[in-house]
Design brief:
Radius of gyration: 22 Å
Helix content: over 70%
Largest sheet: 2 strands, antiparallel
Number of helices: 21
Length: 422
C-alpha cells in the first residue's frame, strides 16, 4: 500500500501540468499518508546502521528522517533568505552592467552562458536562471531570440550547479548526506561540467539565430543604489561561499553554516541601513512551496527506505545491471523526465558506497545536467517554462539535442578521467 501511494503521488507530481495540480499538494499528502499507513498498520520498519539492518519503532524513525530532511529544508531557507535580501537591495541589478555590449549575438551568447554557469555555482541553478530571465527580458526585446538564449541559460545553469555543493539541490543533498566532500566534488565534476557548457554553447553559436549584432545599454541605477547593491551582492555571495569553508574547517553542518551567514548579513544590513521593513519584504519572497515540496519528497522516500523497499531495489539493480556506471547514465536520462530530487533522494538510500566514491560524483553530474535534456527535467527548466511560457515541444525540437550532446560529452570525460590520473 505504501509503494502504491508513492507511485500514485509521484505520477501526480510528474504530470502536474496535465492534471493541473500543484506538485506541492501530492508531495505533502504522499508523505503524510505513507507514514500514517506505516504507523497505523504497524508495518515493520528498519534502519541500516553500519551495514546492519536494525528493526526500529516507526515513530522513532519518522522523527529521525524528519531531522535529516530538516537539514536540507533549513539550508534552503537560509540560502533563499540571503538571495531575497540581495535582490531586495538591487544586488542583482548590478550584474546587468556585465551585459552591456555592442557586439555580435554570438559573443553575447558566450557571455550569458558563462555568467549563468558561474552564478549558478554560488546562488544555485534555479535562482541563477530566474535572475538571468529577468535580465534577458530587459535586454533582448525579440521574444523568439530570447527563447534561444534561455535554452542555453538552462543548460549552463544546470551544468554550473552540479560541481558546487550549494549550486544544485541534488548536489547539496549528496553533500549534506556525507556522500561527497567539497574538494573532491570540484576536482571530479568541474571539468565535465565545463565541457557540457562549452560544447553546448559552441554548437548553439552556429545556429542562424545568433548571426548578426546586438546592442544593450547600461541600466539607469543611481550611484547610491549601485554602490549599495554591489556591496550587498559581494557580502551575500561571500557569506554563501563561507558555508563549505566552515564545514571543512570547523565541522559544523551546512545548514548551521548557512544560518550563521544569514544572521551575519541581517546584522550588517539592519545596522548599516536601519531599514527593518525592507527585510520583512525580502522574507515574503521566499519560495515556501518549493520548501514544502522538498520536505514532502524527502519524507516520502524515507518511508520506502524504512520498510526496506529501496534496499531491495538496490540489490536488484546491482544484479541486473552489469556496472553502476551504466546505472548512473540511465539515471541521468530518467532525470530529464522526472524530478531529480526524489531520484537522488532514493539513490542516497539505495546504495551504501563510501564517502567520495565515484558513483556519487557520477550521480551529482547526471542528475543536474541530465535534467536539461527535457524542459521539465530541472527546476531551472520548469521556472523558465512558467516565467517565459516556453513551449515544451519547441524546446524538444530546438534545444534538447544540444543538451543531450553536452550531457554525453561530460559523461565521457568522467569515464576516461581515471586514465588521466594514472
Amino acid at each position: 500500500m505504501v509503494i502504491l501511494i508513492f507511485i500514485f503521488g509521484y505520477l501526480l507530481i510528474a504530470l502536474e501540468n496535465f492534471f493541473s495540480v500543484n506538485k506541492v499538494i501530492p508531495s505533502i499528502l504522499m508523505a503524510v499518508i505513507c507514514w500514517s499507513l506505516i504507523i497505523f498498520l504497524n508495518i515493520p520498519v528498519y534502519e541500516l546502521d553500519q551495514h546492519l539492518i536494525l528493526k526500529k519503532d516507526p515513530k522513532y524513525l519518522l522523527l529521525f528522517h524528519l531531522g535529516k530532511a530538516s537539514e536540507i529544508v533549513f539550508f534552503l531557507i537560509g540560502a533563499m533568505s540571503i538571495i531575497a535580501v540581495i535582490e531586495q537591495y538591487s544586488g542583482f541589478e548590478v550584474i546587468k552592467n556585465l551585459f552591456y555590449t555592442n557586439n555580435t549575438k554570438r559573443k553575447f551568447l558566450w557571455i550569458i552562458s558563462t555568467v549563468s554557469f558561474l552564478l549558478s555555482a554560488i546562488i544555485d541553478n534555479l535562482t541563477a536562471t530566474m535572475v538571468l530571465i529577468s535580465i534577458l527580458k530587459k535586454t533582448i526585446s525579440n521574444y523568439k531570440d530570447r527563447l534561444y538564449y534561455l535554452g542555453l541559460v538552462i543548460i549552463s545553469a544546470n551544468a554550473g550547479g552540479v560541481w558546487s555543493p550549494i549550486g544544485d539541490i541534488t548536489t547539496t543533498m549528496l553533500w549534506i548526506s556525507n556522500k561527497v566532500t567539497t574538494i573532491f566534488l570540484i576536482k571530479k565534476i568541474f571539468i565535465p561540467s565545463v565541457l557540457c557548457m562549452i560544447i553546448s554553447t559552441l554548437i548553439a553559436s552556429y545556429m542562424p539565430v545568433f548571426n548578426g549584432f546586438i546592442q544593450i545599454k547600461k541600466n539607469d541605477l543611481s550611484k547610491y543604489c549601485k554602490n549599495r547593491g554591489f556591496f550587498i551582492l559581494k557580502l551575500g555571495l561571500s557569506l554563501m561561499l563561507l558555508v563549505p569553508v566552515l564545514k571543512t574547517i570547523i565541522g559544523i553542518p551546512p545548514y548551521m553554516g548557512m544560518m550563521f551567514s544569514l544572521g551575519i548579513i541581517l546584522v550588517i544590513v539592519s545596522k548599516k541601513y536601519r531599514d527593518i521593513s525592507i527585510l520583512d519584504d525580502a522574507f515574503k519572497k521566499i519560495d515556501i512551496s518549493s520548501i514544502l515540496f522538498f520536505l514532502g519528497i524527502l519524507l516520502s522516500v524515507s518511508s520506502l527506505e524504512s520498510i526496506g523497499s529501496l534496499y531491495s531495489l538496490s540489490h536488484w539493480i546491482n544484479k541486473t545491471v552489469s556496472t553502476w556506471k551504466i546505472t548512473t547514465f540511465l539515471f541521468g536520462l530518467i532525470s530529464s523526465i522526472i524530478d531529480n530530487v526524489p531520484l537522488v533522494a532514493a539513490t542516497i538510500t539505495m546504495f551504501s558506497y563510501p564517502l567520495n566514491h565515484d558513483l556519487w560524483h557520477f550521480i551529482a553530474y547526471v542528475s543536474g545536467t541530465g535534467g536539461s535534456i527535457f524542459l521539465i527535467g530541472s527546476a531551472a527548466g520548469v521556472s523558465a517554462m512558467s516565467m517565459e511560457k516556453i513551449d515544451f515541444f519547441w524546446y524538444l525540437k530546438k534545444i534538447s539535442w544540444i543538451a543531450l550532446i553536452g550531457y554525453v560529452s561530460g559523461f565521457i570525460y568522467l569515464l576516461i578521467y581515471p586514465f588521466f590520473s594514472l
